[in-house]
Design brief:
The protein has helices at residues 31-42, 85-103, 126-135, 140-144, 196-218; strands at residues 9-19, 49-53, 56-61, 66-71, 74-80, 107-120, 155-161, 164-173, 176-193. With 221 residues, the chain is an alpha+beta fold. A hairpin with a 2-residue loop joins strand 4 and strand 5 (74-80). Helix 2 (85-103) packs antiparallel against helix 5. The protein is elongated, with a radius of gyration of 20 Å. It starts with 8 loop residues before the first strand and ends with a helix.
């Protein structure tokens, strides 16, 4: 069974970080300010729903489940990739610029970048069969110990790389077993100033998924 590399597609980009408190004890974002920031963001981007939370707000685009979350000291953008990663990355960075400029924020910590992709494989259950036949040399008798009704199985890897932690999951999508789901989560538990590193680290996630991860799945055992 061979994968067609042209079918690998990024689907969602989730990026967030915590704001370094400017005072102690730190307080949540003020509701009136959140409404102003929502107005500034929706001048450029379509987030039709604005929901105030007990300690923040959620700006939501229901059609794609894309949202901007400002909660306590957390700033996070969850963006469906409708065209290409580059456009979504620039949109996320622009939203971060709007938020941090308005609140006069410049110091952050613990950046997280999650990139979700899918790789369709023709035929029912083909994603499951691909993983089982290529990576899991386990007999049906041994699988049977766990019980009947197995639909799929997957792989998870964890890497420590310098100042970052990589968590990689490769498994069939349960809602569509002909699609191989790939989820890459990179955490940077460090203090940083400004947003320059945010764009660089989002690009790192994309390059790793379409570089090493794709090469791993296409390589012979």
């Amino acid at each position: 069974m061979v994968l067609d590399h042209k079918l690998l597609r990024e689907e969602r980009l989730i990026t967030g970080f915590f704001v370094q408190p400017q005072k102690y004890p730190p307080g949540p974002f003020e509701r009136s300010q959140l409404a102003i920031v929502y107005s500034k963001i929706t001048q450029k981007y379509d987030y039709s729903n604005f929901n105030l939370l007990p300690n923040g707000a959620l700006m939501l685009r229901p059609a794609t489940q894309s949202h901007v979350q400002l909660q306590e000291l957390l700033v996070q953008v969850n963006e469906a990739i409708e065209v290409h990663f580059d456009a979504s990355k620039e949109k996320v960075l622009d939203i971060f610029e709007i938020v941090t400029k308005y609140f006069q924020l410049d110091t952050f910590h613990h950046l997280g970048v999650k990139l979700i992709a899918a790789w369709p494989i023709s035929g029912d259950n083909q994603a499951s069969k691909f993983l089982e036949e290529k990576y899991f040399k386990i007999s049906e008798t041994s699988f049977g110990i766990l019980g009947p009704g197995r639909d799929s199985l997957g792989m998870r890897f964890h890497f420590n790389r310098g100042n970052s932690l990589y968590d990689l999951r490769i498994e069939p999508q349960l809602q569509n077993l002909s699609r191989l789901g790939i989820e890459l989560d990179i955490q940077y538990p460090i203090l940083f100033k400004g947003l320059k590193e945010v764009g660089t680290n989002m690009q790192t996630a994309y390059d790793y998924l379409f570089g090493e991860v794709r090469e791993f799945l296409e390589s012979p055992v």
